[in-house]
Amino acid sequence: MPSVAVFFGGASNESEISVITGMLAVNLLRGTQYRVVPVYLPPSGGMATGTFRGVEDFASSARTRFVPVALEGRSIVRTDKRRKEVARADVALNCCHGGMGEDGTLAALLRWNGIPSASPAAAPCGAFMDKAVAKLFAAGLNIPVAPSFTVREGAWKGAEKDVLAQAEAFGYPLVVKPACLGSSIGVAVAREGAALKAALDAAFSLDDKAVVERYFADKRDINCAAYRRRGEIVLSPCEEVFSGGDVLSFREKYEAGRGSRLPADLPEEVAGCIRGYTRALCEAFGIVGVVRADFLVSGDEVYFNELNMVPGSLAGYLFGGSLAEVRRFYLALLEEALTRPLPQKRVIRTGILDGPLFCGSKSCKRRGNFV
Fold first, then answer.
1. d(CA 351, CA 367)
2. Minimal CA–CA distance to 243: which of 215, 271, 278, 270?
3. What are the chain's domains?
4. Per-residue confidence at 144, pLDDT binned at 50, 70, 90?
5. Lowest mean pLDDT among 76-90, 278-292, 332-346, 357-371
6. Whole-model pTM?
């Protein structure tokens, strides 16, 4: 029976949300053709496994036993006194939201250890973790993005007046977002300078860069997910998520929201545009696994907002309305990963270390004791 290692948690502001996604995947995959190995990444660092049954095992009051483990190639190995192999990871599923789980670090670690992953690779994860950089990539593909400017923490501390003047020229109201966070954490709307100052101060307590973006009073939040199946991109219907405030908040997403509509009530050409942009992003970056693209719709205009490399619940609900359908979706992701060979290209050896001289334009002129 092949083993699937499900990774969740991590040193992230979204670690608790990741536990929800991770345990959903763990419990849905149990009883299938896979042996499920839950791998929890504690916020303090490291990896652990255990006989986890539900999210309650990770509550602050829980007395859950965590077994420390590490990756050694494809082996998941205990690192305590009873050092031994717990399981061999035939495939991995990344359920880590934010932090080094979603920014490509975990994907790179899996690749280094030769573990096939049913989730996006390191390069696109790193590219789209930063909202400011993601806008550049989208614009490069002629995908419209909301007008914005980026503020770095150092610039804010050294030149607050200049940033406030730039905002005044840009025009209020403005949305402030920590550049590398998700789940609406730290997002605020500023309608004048004092509010912008407070929003940036709050953002820089969480991140070292913030995106300041034009606010659309009539905006609609539209999502579209995509995954790779037998090499082809499969798109979900567009979903509209409803908000009662200026922006879709953390609480509305996870606690007491106003719900969503699937499929979204959109003109056919707008829905087609959103799905086309989602496909273009996936094709341009060779994305495998599942991602969710978020857009803002204002009138007939569509603006790219962000691309979530580890979406909530892995966006399974956008591809099936029941838990059985979501399970089948997760199994499809794993099957795709196992049938997709890891890239194996020839690595050449130049032989330069065997020569007596380094005389090229990009090397030192002669071998010495300093190299």
1. 14
2. 215
3. 3-119 (3.40.50.20), 128-139+217-309 (3.30.470.20), 148-214 (3.30.1490.20)
4. very high
5. 357-371
6. 0.90
